[in-house]
Amino acid sequence: MIRVGIVNDMRLAIEALRRSVGAMPDASVAWIAENGQQAVECCARDAPDVVLMDMIMPVMDGVEATRRIMARSPCPILVVTATVEGNASRVYEALGAGALDAVATPVLGPDGAALNAEPLIRKIRSIALLAGPAVPVAPTGPVALPAPAPPHRPAMVAIGSSTGGPAALCLVLKAFPVPAPWPIVIVQHVDADFAPGLASWLATETGHRMEVIAPGHCPRPGAVQLAATGDHLLLDRAGRFVYSRDPVDLPFRPSVNVFFDSLVDSAYGGVAIVLTGMGRDGATGMQTLRRAGWHTIAQDRATSVVWGMPGACVDLNAAVEVLPVDQIGHAAVARMRADHPGPVHPPR
After folding, report:
1. What gap in Å lies between CA 182 and CA 83, rounded to an integer?
2. Reported pTM
3. Which residues are known catalytic residues?
């Protein structure tokens, strides 16, 4: 049974959330808090499987409540907000503080049923699955350090992130020159509806030009490119971005592993980075890229909101370097300048 905590100060929103959870035969409401302070206290007494966190509330808002819960009694938090546009800065602050994802609040229909509850229900199930016991992956033994990539090989920085990713991405991207002389491609676990807002927020925070990736786009320097649908991002053999529903059974969409795996057969080399995140997405893909000659970096345990994804990379000996988040961008820039000093040309 998935136990859900609801944090909201609006009665209609509480009822819509309660009925959405009630529509799930394998879920129940653990408790209801009407402000962030109550939520912090409830989590300390009785940590649920998922917390549905509103952003704007009296006494303590959702950002501060998320920060305190993750510091004192960590548990999976899903931001639930009525408007993404109006609350964009708060939403991404909460994601940076450790919230896993964000989704729009369902509403009550004329018959009293919760409308547009499907995205919320899908995310509750995914988070409950990701937050479950990790399946151990046996280390595969030492992996030889890759030789530097040939200077003529097109260069790219590929980044995967999840829980706490927005704040980590800010720190990493700030280390890159503006405009960046190499393509920088990000796969962040975030709902497709929130990806444009995330791109806008990152642009404001870092000064980089952000580009939401559409099918047919190509990697290019000068803009940081962000996966932006609920499907998986891949780079095809022609060097163009495509989205794919397959594999359909992965609980995280878009998948870092799927994107990293697609880079192995591309003309690109460069640096692959896995930042903070719950689960193990990105580990096997990073291992494959390391074996193909990419330089690989995982965020360290001390600076990760959740050391699931980067920790899995370490378990598989997939990371050449394991660094604090404030050093990752500088290390990536130094490596790219050493291995790819010439002009950047996309594959023909």
Report:
1. 35
2. 0.83
3. 162, 189, 281
